[in-house]
Amino acid sequence: MDNRQLHRRTFFASGAAAALGLAGGSASADDAAPPGTLREAPRDVKVIDDCDVVVCGGGPAGAAAAIAAARAGARTRLIEANGCLGGIWTAGLLSWILDARNKGGIMREIVERLRRQDAAVGLSAEGASGSEAYRPETMKLLLEQMCQEAGVTVRLHTMVVGAVRDAAGRITHAITESKSGREAFAGKTFVDATGDGDLSARAGCSFDYGREGTGQAQPMSMIAMLVGLDPKAVSAFTRGLSSEKGQSSKARLLAEMTRCGVTPSYSQPTMFYLGSGLYCLMANHEYGVSPMSADDLTAATLRGRAEVHRLVYALRKNSPAWADVQIVATAEHIGVREGRRIRGLYQVSKEDLRTGARHDDAVCRVFFGVDVHSTDPSKEKGIAREGLRARAYDIPYRSLIAADVKGLLLAGRCISGDFLAHSSYRVTGNSVACGQAAGAAAALAAKSGKLPQDVPFGEIKQAVEKQPATQPAD
Ligand SMILES: Cc1cc2nc3c(=O)[nH]c(=O)nc-3n(C[C@H](O)[C@H](O)[C@H](O)COP(=O)(O)OP(=O)(O)OC[C@H]3O[C@@H](n4cnc5c(N)ncnc54)[C@H](O)[C@@H]3O)c2cc1C
Hints:
- The chain is 27% helix and 20% strand.
- The chain is an alpha+beta fold and 474 residues long.
- The strands form eight sheets. Strands 9-5-4-13-24 form a five-stranded parallel β-sheet. The protein has a four-stranded mixed β-sheet with strand order 3-12-11-10.
- Helix 2 (60-71) packs parallel to helix 4 (136-150) and helix 10 crosses helix 11 (457-465).
């Protein structure tokens, strides 16, 4: 059979176009391929078929989803592109969990276990939303331990690149690429926790991105860890250490950088103390870049890392308080605030924030308000509330169920919502709560053979509430 005959036999799976069987390294020019493209030859892809629930993306939402699914008795796979679990918490070096203290379940367990390991630093309670700072390296290990204890099969270094649907529109496989080549992971129910909604988009789901109308999205940020600072000498610039009245620690840090001859791209640079001489610095904004473009991600990463080094070098050279400061790490993955918001059976909206919406199928209550990092640096480079004073509101289970593809749940920042609502619910205390609910629901759906929308919400609630925490190995 020549190449041309082979190509005629190629079939394409739903929106996942070419999810199955496109050749490993074999490609050629073809009459049927659009100009500027190659049509790859079909090939057989190894199917891994040993689980009920497949969770794609192992950030705060995905790790929680996988732990919850496994604890609910489902054979669970967690597929993560990075070399560690945690997403923005670890590869992104975030170190600060917002909307955490009002949450129970896995969120509370994580905070308690971090505290037991002396890796959580209580910051100001900040009203009802309460935040918690932690050391990212301990978080990496803790998430791995919790997944292992629950019986989750973790696959790191593996990128989800496609999806397959059956004739009834139900997702059947996630297609991946890794050092093992191209593989297909079969499952009964899937959870998209990739942050950017990669699995859902590949499966053919509709989605929204950025502001309604303009498509402008919040900037990315390169976060860094610093050492070599005396807490007393830099307390005025450090959130949580500063007891000085008047200007905020952010305003003082901006003034200090300006005095040293540099202007950060984020006009509210933030530094906080993680104990044992470790500090987290967020001073960079990368505007107008898309997480769906590898070129944009690359450019933002190179620019962001260079800026962080430039800022810290200027402080070291020009201010005695910073004379010994060192960057011990910049984030492995630049922090992405916003990707695709996949359309679900319910869209969380700014009206929900305005009215403090309540739902019978609430998976969690959000206390954190509107938090839009500037989408237009020509106007400003900080954070805006955009005139909306949010009241505490519920996230309904329906916003975690993909509208266009069956058997697919959403968790984390890719759940269904509008631009302003997303700016509020996206923070990680809520991502974990949504992940836990999605994981428990996925397990119930897989075990009963139902679609996620057909599982009675009471059963999901009960499964979440009675989940036993596994015994910590630490
Ligand atoms: C700079 C910055 C500051 C922030 N500040 C705060 C804060 O102070 N407090 C707070 O609580 N939240 C904060 N947020 C959190 C943030 O807003 C997110 O909403 C949060 O990361 C949501 O968690 P997630 O699990 O949905 O996504 P992520 O943390 O992005 O995790 C997604 C995971 O999926 C993986 N993945 C992505 N695509 C694929 C694929 N195709 N295949 C396999 N794996 C994939 C990624 O590697 C990652 O591990 C901040 C975010 C940023 C970027």
